Amino acid sequence: MRRQVLFAMFVIAALMLSACKREERELRPSPPASEVVNETQVSGINPGGHPLPGPPVPNMYEESAYSTSEGKRLFSQYNCSGCHANGGGGIGPPLMDNYWVYGGEPQNIFTTIIEGRPNGMPSFRNRIPEYQVWELVSYVRSMSGLLPKDVAPSRSDRLYVRPPEQSMPKQTPTGITGAPEPPK
Amino acid sequence: MMAAAILAGPHFVLMLAQFTGEHNSLHAAGPQASHIEWLYWVIFWITFVAFVLTIAGFTRAAAKSHSSAAEMLPVSTDPEGDRRATWAVGSAVAITVFTLFAVLFMSVITGKKVEGLTSNNPVTIQVTGHQWWWEIQYPNSQADQTVTTANEIHVPVGKPVVILTNSEDVIHSFWAPSVHGKRDLLPGYSSAFWIQIDKPGTYPGRCAEFCGLQHAHMGFSIVAEDENTFEQWEQQQLKPATDPGDPNAARGKQVFLTHACIMCHTIRGTDAGSKMGPDLTHLASRKMIAAETLPNTPGALAGWIIDPQRIKPGNKMAPNPLEPDDLQALIAYLQTLQ
Prior knowledge:
Largest interface: A-B, 12 and 16 residues
CATH superfamily of the domain at 66-184 in chain A: Cytochrome c-like domain
Strand order of the largest sheet of chain B: 3-2-1-5-8
CATH superfamily of the largest domain in chain B: Cupredoxins -  blue copper proteins
Strand content of chain A: under 5%
Structural class of chain B: alpha+beta
CATH architecture of the largest domain in chain B: Sandwich
Number of helices of chain A: 6
Number of domains of chain B: 2
CATH topology of the largest domain in chain B: Immunoglobulin-like
Strand content of chain B: 15-25%
CATH class of the domain at 66-184 in chain A: Mainly Alpha
Oligomer: heterodimer
Order of helices and strands of chain B: HHHEEEEEEEEEEHHHEEHHH
Shape of chain A: globular
Number of strands of chain A: 0
Order of helices and strands of chain A: HHHHHH
Number of strands of chain B: 12
CATH class of the largest domain in chain B: Mainly Beta
Helix content of chain B: 40-55%
Distance between the termini of chain B: 63 Å
CATH topology of the domain at 66-184 in chain A: Cytochrome Bc1 Complex, Chain D, domain 2
């Protein structure tokens, strides 16, 4: 009995320790490598019909609630909403659905922001510091429920017509793996 | 003992009045601050008298009673003494209540006086609080006649000035001690107050409401100058930035426009037009940078651009690891922004 109690306390302590990280504020960040741009697969068309073996790059900011909320701030201040309308889409494609034209993995979104895309998406290479791009990536993924609920923003400073990112249902990303496009 | 306290009193007051710190509400620069200073001294002297009387009473009681605990006096009834004690306590309470009401009354009167400055054609300044700097605008019905700057407010001497306040993010508080009391800047709520400065000079101010990591380094300054100098300053601030003639500075302009600077800052007359950070159109005309944290020298500017997070951890400006040549060119360009 006593050992079980000790074990339970140990587990709780370990959980509490792991929970601390999501509020950690890294003020002088060293972001993940940017070479992913050259290795990211952005299309379902492959030589020989086999997808390239590019492993997904973990975005360390997807574990940090602070960085994700910074991503949310930057999303509005860098005027991403000008085209993507708080994730609902307009001039640009919506970001809160499950369809990703150029892929929904962190390195895909990173590449899209860094390189730009045809028909409107500008390249932000050198304009937005890389760690901020990764923060934006983290926020963009939270809009379709791809982030853990304790990391995604729970509440906005201003009025929004959609539910907070934390309450967005988790979408299964489709797009570049050859899945059919959703009905328009 | 009492005589010593009374003798020491004025000396202490003199010492207090001689404090010459930069932020000093006892060196009033205008009518509002004078009213506040007057109220300060009235309350100071009232509490000083109360302090002296209290200490004198304690001293007298302590000096009078030499009896030890062993020879306790028996309980005695003394109706005459009770009556006198009732009178003494009653009048002390009455005087205290009356004094407190008097002070309250004077506070309200001072508040009214501080508010009651009017003019038909005042200089209007919009102050918007940001984490962690001050956006300063001189609104005009014509958009191209609006001066936008940051952290350094210029006002003409002896003229009433209306300050409109607002905040972009959290609650800040605008406090220049020698000019006015604290005024909160509330997000989404515009309010206004008057200031007037009668003596030319530079008056520092601070954020007086805790607003996050860099609250302690959120300063501003008010420069009061004669009307001609002020108008010259305003005309200069209205001009867009000119293209630098020097090739190094011209390269610096390209660095500015092709790096992260352009994402947050405005330089009127160029493609940079973002409103996230301070307007840099006339950066070189300002004495300080980073909300009165560093002097506006090439070295400080370079240190700030390369690693602002070391100087003010948590502020919203990202580190910019520029190549040395690019950085030198950028500094050369920024120094042309007079």
